[in-house]
Amino acid sequence: MKKNHKYIFVVGGVMSGVGKGIASSSIGKILQSKGFKVNPIKVDPYLNVDAGNMNPIEHGEVFVLDSGLETDQDMGNYERFLEMNLNSEDYMTSGSVYKHVIERERNLGYRGKCVEAIPHITEEILRRIKKAADEHQSDISLIEIGGTIGDYQNILFIEAARTLKIKHPQDVIFIMVSYLPIPGSLGEMKTRPTQNAVRQLNSYGVQPDIIIARGAQSLDYKRKEKIAMACAIAPENVISAPDIASIYDVPINFEKDKISSIILKIFHLRSKTNGNSLKYWKDFVHERAQAKKELQIAVVGKYFDTGDFVLSDAYVSVIEAIKFSSAWKGARTNLTWINSKEYETDPKKISELKDYDGIIVPGGFGESGVEGVIMAVEYARVNKIPYLGLCYGMQLAVIEFARNVIGWKDAHTSEINPKSSHVVIDIMPEQKKLLEEGRYGATMRLGAYPAILKKGTIAYGAYGEKNISERHRHRYEVNPEYIADVENAGMVFSGTSPDRRLMEIAELPKNIHPFFLGTQFHPEFKARPLHPHPLFTAFIDACLKNRQS
Ligand code: GLN
Fold first, then answer.
1. Could you give the strand order of the β-sheet that contains 423-427, starting from the edge strand earlier in sequence?
2. N-term to C-term CA, the chain
3. Of ligand 1's atoms, which has the minimum distance to the CA of residue 427?
4. Is the pTM of this model over 0.85?
5. Which of 394, 476, 524 gets mutated to test ligand 1 (max ligand atoms within 8 A of its CB)?
6. Is the CA virtual torsion 302, 308, 313, 318 positive or negative?
7. What domains are defined for the chain?
8. If 0-12 CB within 10 Å is exposed, 13-18 middle and 19+ buried, where does residue 382 land?
9. Which atom of ligand 1 approaches the CA of 393 most closely?
């Protein structure tokens, strides 16, 4: 690790869900723009070892790293904002830390000592933080501690941070992302909950250096002074963070309150760049705001009646991937979430899909709403509407093709109907064994795998190269028994694993359909604002052409 390595701990005050992850990502972006190498770490204080078994409708998307680790959606924000690939060391939960310490104890790793939360858990937390900094060879580590001050379960992480500060007072700072409510009856922003949150943090022996004041409105100087006075910090170190239209504006907004100079001053560091180093980022934000063309895209899946808010959390990477590629093409895309069950109960409703410029079927699991999705795939195929299938969306496209083009009427996936006479999507033997043993955690095909693309296909045209690597999260695959039949009927497997055993991309030739493509992997995990994903961009391009015609 570099000498005088710096650490920024970001903690939450008052309540969670106010954008701590975006705030941390934005701070990272700004520090990058000042020429520093930053590595973000997300700490989730729950006992789950990883996020793999968590329900995305309740907890948001499960984001998958190259390594295959299943993590919190904030890791996706970090990768997108900071344009970097993160490693397993960059994410930890209380569960993963405890598991490691307990296993070490079982293996006599503590040589007969009594193993205790303090210091053994806190030491393990710090070991991981340092290892992550080492791996990235970074200048500054940005560690976001999930939850809020006062949650019992994050106390050991705060304690670990505190001990680090005691040892390296010049190298550690604390930022509290707080929330300032505006009660409807009063109509004014209240600072007291923030003051109390700081007091609670103080009771752990930690004083924040900077407070990010989230709220519906900007914070006026009077209130900055009030917080400053009550919390013993300079008013300039209270950053106003009002709600804004796009999360990608947040770094620009923080800089209005000069957050980077404040951080660099505390650390006694100097910017390594000069001028407008956030330029490309600003250009992207500007282009997005200026986009003139409009697109309507339907996202068809099994959705519960949870409202758009939760759905947008469950599919955040897909939504962002669409945003980036749309901005790249000068377009603004409206996504409509369609519950596929509606097509099962009212088949005529399917014709509403003619009003969309493109159709996406995202990843999913289980039986619910699947027949409705297959109807939507058929509609897209027959009516030549651009179609992008992501993981389940690819598998269901193969099933639709097997049923309606080849004529295997009961073709299915063994996830739903293992007794079908044509199980065109089937489980791999390795996975079957794990499931029989009742083991679910981290038992899918997870993380980055290489694939080889076939020349002359849509996929090859989009990527512009033969060798790719994409991230996976699924148990089932195209059944090797049926590959030849499906290809003979006209579907092209344009991407395969290097040994050609696993089908990675399925598409229809361009002379049959303008854009019909499904991926066994999740391309959305690798889409970045300044580097949109080529398949999403090709899809948006096809949607734009479809709209014009
Ligand atoms: N349910 C399918 C599988 O496990 C697809 C998973 C997904 O879409 N992520 O293979």
1. 412-413, 423-427, 476-478
2. 57
3. 10
4. yes
5. 476
6. positive
7. 6-282 (3.40.50.300), 292-548 (3.40.50.880)
8. exposed
9. 8
Strand pairing category for 293-301 and 516-519: unpaired
Ligand 1 atom nearest 364 alpha carbon: 8
CA of 365 to the centre of ligand 1 (A): 5
* Chain segment 165-196, per-residue pLDDT in tens: 999 999 999 999 999 999 988 888 999 999 99
Q: Which residue's alpha carbon is nearest to atom 9 within ligand 1?
A: 363
Rounded to whole angstroms, the Cα distance separating 504 from 391 reads: 9
Copy the structure tokens of residue 485: 């039949």
Pairing of strands 467-474, 445-453: antiparallel
Whether 472 sits among the annotated catalytic residues: the reply is: no
How confident is the model over 204-255, as pLDDT tens digits? 999 999 999 999 999 999 999 999 999 999 999 999 999 998 899 999 999 9
* Secondary structure class of 157 (helix, strand, coil): helix
For ligand 1, is residue 389 a contact (CB within 6 Å)? no
What is residue 114's DSSP assignment? Answer: P
- Judge whether 98 and 47 are in contact, CB under 8 Å: yes
